[in-house]
């Protein structure tokens, strides 16, 4: 049997004006999963537009599933308290599943960045167990023939993943979405790759982390390769006043949505030249006049990563986040889709029946 893969596309509900679907994505969305990143409730009314849009996409692409992602970098500080008691974990699980069924999602993604110690790591595993149990309760009551998904956004940094019982978690969740990016940034002393596949021993300041090291550690810990999806950024990280890769820098400049962070669709900037580190398998641009270095994925580096996904037998790809992609032939999402080829339909059709949703249009299947 030929290998099959999944592709996950992240859509932000909290960044007003960035929640939009691109034509380049539309040619790659059949069979892809969409994950809506939601930090907290209540949400402004404008976000309600997303719910019917995603549901209608599910109806037109029956192998596409949508998921609700809870947490994220800014609001992960709320997890330790919520997960610290059995009552808190139960409340979280019940609330999460209620949101899932009310909005017509196919599962839940937990993005806790990051458990800081052994106690929080244990609470994380218990929280995931509580959510899984609640999903099973909902399944047995309303949809006995459908398996709702539970996934996590998982760290690629050793100081974070070594705190987790990865083998135990692999028995609870369906997929680890490995956040294989943000390896470098304003917090560093040297310009460096932010999503390199391998280390570069010749220029070690350029590769403080590597994706291959993280994947190797996960596999060694007992996580099946088929449960790991490789996350890739649709943005670049900038370093100013630097002589190039692995060199000291001063400042990060502006950005598309935060300082030092530029959407892939606006890169490279005018005057900058794209280069490739063939050892680290990473791309970047450099502007000699402004002395600005930007680390970002290109179709070339993406092709290498897709080959790696296939070679390692990983479950597929994940992109953060979709509004940063290009709409032309250099779209990373569309390129990934085309290179991965056969997408995974083993779990059958998505779910369209939510008889107890609080919303009439979802209960009616958006008829």
Write the layout of secondary structure elements.
Blueprint: E1 6-12, H1 23-26, E2 33-38, H2 50-60, E3 66-71, H3 79-82, H4 86-103, E4 107-111, H5 118-142, E5 149-155, H6 158-161, H7 166-170, E6 175-179, H8 211-221, E7 228-233, E8 235-239, E9 261-263, E10 273-277, E11 282-287, E12 292-295, H9 299-312, E13 316-320, H10 332-340, H11 360-363
Parallel strand pairs: 1-2, 1-13, 2-3, 3-4, 4-5, 5-6, 6-7, 7-13
Antiparallel strand pairs: 8-9, 8-12, 10-11, 11-12
Question: How would you describe this protein?
Answer:
By secondary structure, this protein is of the alpha/beta class. It has one domain (6-234, 298-363): Alpha-Beta Barrel (TIM Barrel). It is built from eleven helices and 13 strands. The protein has helices at 23-26, 50-60, 79-82, 86-103, 118-142, 158-161, 166-170, 211-221, 299-312, 332-340, 360-363, and strands at residues 6-12, 33-38, 66-71, 107-111, 149-155, 175-179, 228-233, 235-239, 261-263, 273-277, 282-287, 292-295, 316-320. Strands 1-2-3-4-5-6-7-13 form an eight-stranded parallel β-barrel, surrounded by five helices. Strands 9-8-12-11-10 form a five-stranded antiparallel β-sheet, with no helix packed on it. Helix 4 (86-103) crosses helix 5. The longest helix is centred in the middle third of the chain and has 25 residues, at 118-142. The two termini are 37 Å apart. Mean pLDDT is 89; it is low at 14-31 and 38-47.
